[in-house]
Amino acid sequence: MKKIISLILVISLLLSCSNESIEDSTNLTQESNQKLLSVEKVNDYIATELKENGDLDWTKVPALVLWSAAIHSNGVITIGYGNEDENFSENRSPELIDAKANILDVVNSIEQSTKSNTVQYDDDILNFIEVKVSKLETIIALQKTDKVRYIEPSYSSFLPNDQERNFGCATEGRIVNPEDYRIITPNAWLPWSFDVHNIPAAWEFSTGRNITVGVVDSGISQTQKFLGEDFNDGFSNGRTVEQYGTFDGSVYDDCGHGTAMSAAIASPRNDDAMPVGVAYNSNLVVYRGTGDVLLEGSKERKAVSKAIRELGDRSDVKIISMSIGWVWTVRNIKDAVKYAYSKDKMIIAAGGTSTQFTNWYAVIFPASMKETVAVTGIKENGKRCFVCHDGKKIDFTVAMERDAANNRTLPVLGFSSDVRNVVGGSSIATATTAGIAALVWATNPNMTREQVLDKMQKAGEYYPNRSNKYGYGKINVLKAVQ
C-alpha cells in the first residue's frame, strides 16, 4: 500500500536508543513509587517488541507500560472479554453478560465512576467494550480479572509528526507514462500489469458479474463519477455501487486512497480513455472506515471493525478488500475479521509497504492473520517492489512496478472524474487481487471461499510449491477462471 507503514521510519530512531533506556523503562515497573512513562520510553518498549517478536501483544505488556500508553491516548482502552475463542457472539450467554458486568464493576469501583461516565463504546456483536481509565490500579486489577481476553490502549504516539494523518493519501492527478497502458475497446486504458497476469484473456470467461466486493478504506471521492452515477457505462452494466461511512460521519473520501483501490477493482470499461478495473462488471460496497491507510487510533479502529462486521452480515458480499493496516495486531479488528471469516467471506489484506524496514519487518496486521489472504507487490521482473514487504505469510503477489522506475506503477481513476492516478505498493496489489478473486468467483457464484482460493492457488506461478517470501506468487488469471 502506498506509504503504509511509512510510520516505521520512526523505528530507526527508537531502535537507536540505548539498551540502558529500555532497561530503565522496565525497571520502572518494579519501583514502589511508580510514575508515568514518557512517550519516548513507551516507544522504546514497543520498538523492542516489534524487533524481537515481530508483533506487540498487549496482554504481555507490564501494567505500567500499558497504563502509560493509555494515559498518552486520553485514557481510552479497549477490553475484550469472554474465553479466548469468544471473539464475537450474536446471542450472548449469561456467562458473557456476567463477564462484562464484572469488568465494569472493577473499573467503576477503582475509578469511582459510573457506567455512563466510563463506557465509551459497547459493541453489540464483537465481545469488546471501550472504557476510559485514569489509574494504574485499574490496569493492574483488570490484568487479574477473570475472562479478560485483552486490554489495549488506543495508542498512536508511535507515529512521527503526530499532527499529520495523511499516509497514503493523494488527491491530485498524475501523469501516466504512455508505455504503462494500452488502448482496448471501446477506448479504455488497460494497465500494463493486466497482461502480465493474463487478465484480458480471462475476460473472455468472466468480468466479475453478480459478484459483490466490499472495500474498507477511506471511501470514494464525491467527484469521481465513474465510481458513482456513471458506474454503469460502456461495457460495464447491470451492477451497483453502494457507499457507507463508519468514520467521521461521512461516506466520501477526502484522502484519495479508497477511491484508487475501488477503481483498481471495478472501474468501468468505457470509451472515456480511463483505466479499467480488473472486475469491471462486479458490484461494490465501499466503506469509509479510515481517514488514511493507518489503523492508528480508537476512532479508526472502531470504525474499521464495525465496517468489517457489517460487510460480514451481508449475504451478497463475498470478498472484503483491505489495503490498510497497522504495525501490530489490533484485537477489536481481529475480532471483526474472525467474525467476517465465520460468515464465509474471503478477506484480502495488504502485506505492507515501507521504505527502510522491508528487510526485517515482514507482514503487517491484518494480513498477518491466518484468516486473511495476504498480498504484496513485485516488479515486472519478479523481484520485490521497492517498498513492499514480503515473508512467509504472503499468499500472492501482483506485478505493479516497472523495472525501469520505482514510480511507474499502476494507472487507475483519479480523485476527480477528469484525472488519472498512479498507485503502487501492496495496496494496489491487494485491490488487484480482490478483483481477480471476483473474476474467479463469477465463473460459478455457488463456489465456496475455499474452492475459489484453491483455483487461485493452483494458478499461482509457484504451485504446487510455496515461496517463503511470495506464497504462490503471481496468479495466471486465465488459468484460474478456466
**Total of domains:** 2
Q: What is the number of E strands?
A: 15
The order of strands across the largest sheet is: 8-9-7-10-11-12-13
Q: Which residues sit in consecutive blocks of at least 5 with pLDDT less than 50?
A: 1-33
- Sketch the major β-sheet: 7 strands, parallel
Description:
The protein has 15 helices and 15 strands. By secondary structure, it is α/β, with parallel strands linked by helices. It has 2 domains: 6-153, no CATH class; 178-481, Peptidase S8/S53 domain (Rossmann fold). The strands form 4 sheets. Strands 8-9-7-10-11-12-13 form a 7-stranded parallel β-sheet, sandwiched between helices. Helix 2 (19-28) crosses helix 3 (39-53) and helix 4 (63-71) packs across helix 7 (136-143).
Q: Helices, strands, pairings?
A:
Elements: H1 9-15, H2 19-28, H3 39-53, H4 63-71, E1 76-81, H5 94-111, H6 115-118, E2 119-122, E3 128-132, H7 136-143, E4 148-153, E5 181-184, E6 188-191, H8 192-196, H9 199-202, E7 212-217, E8 241-245, H10 257-266, E9 283-288, H11 298-312, E10 317-322, H12 331-342, E11 346-350, E12 372-379, E13 396-401, E14 410-413, E15 420-423, H13 425-442, H14 449-458, H15 477-481
Parallel strand pairs: 7-9, 7-10, 8-9, 10-11, 11-12, 12-13
Antiparallel strand pairs: 1-3, 1-4, 2-3, 5-6, 14-15
